[in-house]
Amino acid sequence: MTQSSTTHHYQKLTQHFQKISHFEHLSALGDWDQATMMPSGGSEARGAAMAELAGHIHELKTADFLEEILGLAADEQLNTEQVANLREMQYQYFQANIVPVSLVQSKTQLAYQCEHAWRVQRKNNDWQGFKPNLEALITLVKEEAQIRAQAQGLSPYDALLNKFEPGMTTARLETVFGSLKSWLPGLITQVQAEQSSEKPFSIPSFSTANQEALGRDVMGFLGFDFNQGRLDISSHPFCGGVPGDIRLTTRYDEADFTQGLMGIVHETGHARYEQGLPKQWRGQPVGGHRSMAIHESQSLFCEMQLGRGNGFLTQIQPLIAEHLGSVLNADALTNIYTRVKPGLIRVDADEVTYPCHVLLRFEAEKGLIDGSLQVANLPEFWAENMKSLLGVDTTGDYQNGCMQDIHWAVGELGYFPSYTLGAMYAAQFRYAIEKSLGSVDTLVAQGKIHAVFDWLEHNIWSKGCLLSTDDLVKQATGETLNPEYFKRHLEQRYLK
Amino acid sequence: MTQSSTTHHYQKLTQHFQKISHFEHLSALGDWDQATMMPSGGSEARGAAMAELAGHIHELKTADFLEEILGLAADEQLNTEQVANLREMQYQYFQANIVPVSLVQSKTQLAYQCEHAWRVQRKNNDWQGFKPNLEALITLVKEEAQIRAQAQGLSPYDALLNKFEPGMTTARLETVFGSLKSWLPGLITQVQAEQSSEKPFSIPSFSTANQEALGRDVMGFLGFDFNQGRLDISSHPFCGGVPGDIRLTTRYDEADFTQGLMGIVHETGHARYEQGLPKQWRGQPVGGHRSMAIHESQSLFCEMQLGRGNGFLTQIQPLIAEHLGSVLNADALTNIYTRVKPGLIRVDADEVTYPCHVLLRFEAEKGLIDGSLQVANLPEFWAENMKSLLGVDTTGDYQNGCMQDIHWAVGELGYFPSYTLGAMYAAQFRYAIEKSLGSVDTLVAQGKIHAVFDWLEHNIWSKGCLLSTDDLVKQATGETLNPEYFKRHLEQRYLK
After folding, report:
1. Which residues of chain A neighbour B41 with C-beta distances below 8 Å?
2. pLDDT tens readout for residues A169-217
3. Which residue of B27, B46, B277 to mutate against A (max A Cβ within 10 Å)?
4. Which phi-psi region, left, alpha or beta, contains residue A224 (left: φ > 0; alpha: ψ -120 to 50)?
5. Cα separation of B190 and B207, whole Å?
6. From residue B49, how far is each of A22, B46, B52, B247, B337 by CA, in Å?
7. How confident is the model over A7-37, as pLDDT tens digits?
8. Is A94 a residue whose pLDDT tops 50?
């Protein structure tokens, strides 16, 4: 018997998942176009076409023959990588099949309505309007969590976490985040005291065109290949497209170029991960990104570990001077990009205060799912925790409080922890790189940034989903998630 | 029995064709993106995704249940418009099913290879390289024509014409084009003699950005709604997208803005037709464009009947002055846009000589399909006919002779006549408009261009495929295709 005939069920599966990836390619294109190019008049037809496509992809992922053939393939003579691919296929099949179609549809519909209303309600600080919508949506999310939990033998919130972080548990997060909560608020106070003597900077205005030209050059410095992707504008920055054709976006504020520029650095991190995924596995489940936390670890590695470091800022200062004029030296840039200031908005938060926003949301989500927190009590919970974690007052400010994020308005619970897990992994990867290659800041200052990316490509990007998250991190750094590196990183960078 | 239950087979068909239109939406988006936005590294994955999508659309159009249900729906109590929709469904089903999948696949594959090689061979004037590829492809086209002919009781070339012009026949074209051939070469000689005393113009250079800004303003003047479409750049101008989101493109030559600008006017004609198709029939076969000749009639109405007229050029002269400076007055513009000069290249031809390029191709295609012309003799045929029709010599110049068009290199025969039929319909529509509203040039000069478009919207665009081409034209103008109006138009504009 030849190898191909002994694996023919597995081969049939690879063809089927390749087909799915072709339709997902079209879905990624439609999403990108909608956010960057589509005129308003196109939304009705696009909405219908995208819904049709989503339905078709769901049909393919839940095709009747899959269950049997996934079982048969498991008995075939597969090599290690094929076994990993089959495991990811089983995971995708499970995720697509676990929730009844009727629940998926009601949740999609309610989430659409809730989000639509939220866009106006948030602007109007209209908590009373948002509350009943969120309550109805959370009821469905709890139902979904219950179904997922039973099927996997997990707690309901664990089941939601597993949509984004396969293998992650509430218990583990409680340990990791509990430690964070014990030292971070104190660190923030300390850093603020140290920075209080620094004088504020005034940042001149620059045209969008100049900022975009600068952004492209910085992307080039970060090794982005423009033959395999684009940079465009959208109201919410994202990294989309497909490996080989990564579409990233940012937005420009003429009055403050620093946020848009760092947004580009962040999305370039996502982009390089996607571009660096294993080419030989493109279109197969095992060829995708490992988890959302690992994805965020790559964007945050670029933005936080590299981007806000003095080595990087010294290197890109001449590019800034070329496009915007010599208005800020590397020290001024470093000061701007390491300024710590507790605020109301998660997406505007600095590296040090950001995890507090995640801690609060993690606790809130756990409570909403286990029933210990009611939607009606969310503003109160929010105000208390923002006060204790960050010392800021959000009483009565719903739009900049519990209504600020889109996640809950679309019924997406369990995602927030990925941001801070990503920041922690990024710090851990940096430590591992420095152990073998020496200081990252020094490498960058010496023009050897490629050595840092080579390490990431070899240890993270090229692995796709071949390993579990724990195995991936252990193979790359010698241990599984260890939040100590994140603490060490913040102390080294922010305490003088 | 309610109306809905007496038409439930028909209703099922409308749902199925709506679904097809959703996937065709994605196909249009993929095509547009590929030509305008996609980086080179994206082509492999995109090619695979688009092939998957094409296969899926073909599956939907040839679904097993369609034949029976199309028959059952025909016995239901349908109103006139539903009957027309069913007729178009039957037509699409027939077109998708008539050619065996194996032949479609071999032709697609061979066409892909032939085109790929042609792109290089054309540049190198390599007729000997192109010839065997074209011979192989023509063999398959003849096979396709034979199958289509037998199924429809038509001649093979008629069957190819019917892919683009339902109802058109070789015999009718021979009458129409035969008449054209009898007077057009004489007219060209006469016009050239009259224009020989006019002095040539020198056109200054303008930046792409200024030309694009001008183009947008001219599109606005032509009533293009930018909430329902976009203008971008591609190497070959086209009008794509979907109604509600029309994507048109042009290319800019900094040394000569006149071609790019008229290209925009041309594509805007296509775009307004698509934007004006009946909204209540979007996604249904009867809601689409009537035929390629009618599509070309709308672009050529904009470009030739309106765009090269003194009324239009007088109106847009201030826009040109605003964006490019006051370098050309309306008379100079009129002279530039009505200059007649026989040349080698169809797509560069003026309004008067263009039909000669089509006459030649029509004769060649007939011969290639009925076997009276061999591929090997094409260059000789080309040289003789270019000499007799336009007085130019193409001997040995294959790249600007029979290798200039992409159509044959991808195995598409039967399309060329649509261009000249479109020019004729455009002249006939103008005559009908003038009978009821007075001179089009005067209307445009008086700022009443909308009255012209209102007529087109009412009589052509909003009809979709509700009527046959002959009925559409008869209802709009009182008679079916009458090439006399085209003759009259050329004589009025070009003979002093």
Report:
1. 225, 227-229, 244-245
2. 999 999 999 999 999 999 999 999 999 988 877 888 999 999 999 999 9
3. B46
4. beta
5. 37
6. 4, 5, 5, 21, 42
7. 999 999 999 999 999 999 999 999 999 999 9
8. yes
* Cβ <8 Å between B41 and A282: no
Paired tokens of A467: 């390993």
Q: Which CATH number fits domain A108-496: 3.40.50.2300, 1.10.10.10, 3.30.460.40, 1.10.1370.30?
A: 1.10.1370.30
What pLDDT score was predicted for residue B5?
61
pLDDT at residue number B4: 52
H and E: helices and strands count for chain B: 22, 3
Closest residue, chain A, to B27 (C-alpha):
A26
What was the ipTM of the complex prediction?
0.92
The answer to whether A154 and A430 have CB atoms below 8 angstroms apart is: no
Q: What is the CATH number of domain B154-496?
A: 1.10.1370.30
Residue spans of the domains in chain B: they are 3-153, 154-496
Taking the CA of residue B225 and the nearest CA in chain A, the distance in Å comes to 9
Scanning the structure block, which residue is given the tokens 């724990």?
A470
Q: What is the pTM of this model?
A: 0.93
In A6-25, the residues whose Cβ lies within 8 Å of chain B are 19, 22-23, 25
Q: Which candidate in A29, A40, A284 is best for mutational testing of the B interface (most B CBs within 10 A)?
A: A29
| Cβ <8 Å between A245 and B41 | yes
Residues of chain B contacting A29 with CB distance shorter than 8 Å? 26, 29-30, 33
Structure tokens at A24: 């997902």
Chain B residues with CB inside 8 Å of A283's CB? 45, 48
